[in-house]
Amino acid sequence: MAYEGILMGMGNPLLDISAVVDEEFLQKYDLKLNNAILAEEKHLPMYDEMANKNSVEYIAGGATQNSIRVAQWMLQIPGATSYIGCIGKDKFGEEMKKNSKLAGVNVHYYEDESAPTGTCAVCVVGGERSLIANLSAANCYKSEHLKRPENWALVEKAKYYYIAGFFLTVSPDSIQLVAEHAAASDKVFMMNLSAPFICEFFKDAQEKVLPYMDFVFGNETEARTFSKVHGWETDNVEEIALKICRWPKASGTHKRITVITQGADPVVVAEDGKVKKFPVIKLPKEKLVDTNGAGDAFVGGFLSQFVLEKSIEDCVRAGCYAANVIIQRSGCTYPEKPDFN
């Protein structure tokens, strides 16, 4: 089958613990909406507090895994996608395996004996979300697992690779291995800026792998943080996208394309020194459930058409469609079949 294993993802598999909270809760734990951070000591009691809320839901998450699952759902071709990451040997880990298999993704998890499966607190206020990740086992991924023949076979088989920036905090050497393979084999390597803290505190790791990126995804806040960190002195998302495209490349096979989402505002695509803007699907406020997974779903929709060699315009349309479906549901979940044409 031509499409088997065509798209591979690698990242931090996390179980989302999602609950509706209030402003007071955000203040208590020093949280900002539309932000993603790593849990510190002060955040740890929050997970139990959320688990005791009536509205709590447990949903398989993790940025890259969300995007891969959405791409798989949009493609409706069993086994078109594969995914690698680290989980614990526990109930949550078993849940994750079951969930991924049902989604049709070929997962090769590394199972860590010592740490529990990672979790991500998703605090929802008025449809907007704040994410606090407690990586646990996800943080234990080692490139030795990637190098095992049965896992490296997934890399060999794939033609497209997607890794969220969050994985830079865990296993930059694994990312480097895949990036170098992609460049040497004329395949397509794609990453996401993922969060302001990645651009700020993992700048060196991000810069090391940036030359290998054929596509850079992100949202407007991340793009502006990236600009600030690099002293570009511009907040203009279109300018920033063009500057990211011009960053030196490790391989000349593919030109870099930068795709920046801006919530309800148009998607910015920079390519060949030009910028195109694509409107998103407008959604009445009362239909918004939560924005958790919206950016991940956009990438998943985009990738589903990109691996079918559709135009960038069609890829963006599919991304907007997938994001629109996901924000009308809790977490990164979707109906049985897509309704995209």
Describe this structure in words.
The protein starts with 6 loop residues before the first strand and ends in a 15-residue tail after the last helix. The chain is built from 13 helices and 14 strands. Strands 6-5-1-9-10-11-12-13-14 form a nine-stranded mixed sheet, with helices on both faces. Strands 3-8-7-2-4 form a five-stranded mixed sheet. It has a single domain (7-13, 61-117, 135-327), classed as UDP-N-acetylmuramoyl-L-alanine:D-glutamate ligase, CATH 3.40.1190. By secondary structure, it is of the alpha/beta class. The radius of gyration is 18 Å and the shape is globular. The model has no long low-confidence stretch (mean pLDDT 95). Strand 9 (160-164), helix 7 and strand 10 (188-192) form a beta-alpha-beta unit. Residues 26-335 form the Carbohydrate kinase PfkB domain.
Determine the structural class based on helices, strands and strand pairing.
alpha/beta
Q: Write the element-wise H/E pattern from the N-terminal end onward.
A: EEHEHEHEHEEEHHEHEHHEHHEEEHH
CATH class value: Alpha Beta
Task: Give the helix proportion (percent range).
Answer: 25-40%
Instruction: Compute the separation of the termini in Å.
Output: 23 Å
How would you characterize the largest beta sheet? 9 strands, mixed
Low-confidence stretches: none
CATH architecture assignment? 3-Layer(aba) Sandwich
Number of strand elements: 14
CATH topology: UDP-N-acetylmuramoyl-L-alanine:D-glutamate ligase
The largest sheet has its strands arranged as 6-5-1-9-10-11-12-13-14
Percent in strands: 15-25%
How many structural domains?
1
Measured on Cα atoms, how large is the radius of gyration?
Answer: 18 Å
Task: Give the CA-based shape.
Answer: globular
